[in-house]
Amino acid sequence: MKVRLKLRFSPAVTVIILFGFISMFGDIIYESARGANGQYFNLLHINAAQIGLVFGIGEFLGYFLRLVSGVFSDRRGNQWLLIFLGYGMLAVVPLIGFTMKWNLLIVLILMERIGKALRSPAKDTILSAVAEKQVGIGMAFGLQEALDQIGAFIGPMIFSTVFFLSGENNITQYQTGYRLLIIPYAVLMLFLIFVYTKIKKNELITEDGKREKNTEQLQPIFWIYTAFTFFCTLGFVNFSMAGYHLKANHLLPDGSITMLYSVAMIVDALTALVIGKIYDRIKIRTEKQTGGILVLVAIPLLTMLLPIFVLSASRIWIVIGMIVFGIIMGTHETVMRSAIADITPFHKRGTGYGVFNTSYGLALLIGAAIMGWLYDQNQKDLIIALSCLSELIAFFLYAMMNRMVNSNSKSGKAF
User: What is the pLDDT of residue 129?
Assistant: First the structure.
């Protein structure tokens, strides 16, 4: 007698898993390129100032244009157009392997970042609409982040494999690595087409997402939440700062530094899955749509401790700090994105994600610039002080947010 086991998922779960694979293949493409661009440009005799300027402009556009694309998607209701256009623009990454001209490379790099800006708010809007009331927004974004990190881990291995098999790491090998990225790009686009048809066929966007647009507005809690995430992120020490500290003080060899980052990304992925589930359970337990926000109380505390760990001279403290770093990143990418869906109505969600991402990017830029300057001045104590001050403000904003959640719950409001 044969026993057949069939693993069946609902259409919504299937779509969320497929969206996760889309994100994974997207990360394989652009994270592998981001890990190779600096070295490739060095081989082309492009100086560090030029590289830094272009990458800086690219990162700025990648965050700022999310506000523009988010507002546009809400007003026009064309999220899928932006998703297909944004992911379609990843085709520029394999094209890097076909040119050595500096002006064309600039255009390709900026187009990749613009594509990221176009698709992100629209994709998060669609994903949250499919997940809410069917799967759980926290779980959906947690799965997305976990698969993102798998993609970020796999991507650079493409170039490493090319170097290993050829025994060289010259221009030809780099170009081969870029060109090979056309394979994950083709797979990504096939997944995207399938997800689009699956959502349309099963009508997975809930009726709540089809309410009259003119009646929906961003609520005061959204702006408090945005300010909260801004100050949480302002005091966050990024890996570039931590890696620079480790290298400058000869605390770890280069290979160990990159390995430590990989460990942090694994922690990030695991945290995303766990924290996403916790977020959904708190919503159910508190019977509040915005109840999951309560899980964010730990973020200011962990962020406040981060510079104490990662800027120390102790290897043990640094390892602990990178684990904390991974936990913070996993929560940022999961709960912070999930909360936007719970505090914004559907037809304002693209705008909400756009504002959130712009604020997040601005905080990263300001925080990194100030901390970098303070580090050059040998003022690590002031970096810790800046982080503490930012997170204390975040605690205050969290308290305001918590009061608003409780007040809205008692009055019967959704947001």
Answer: 78
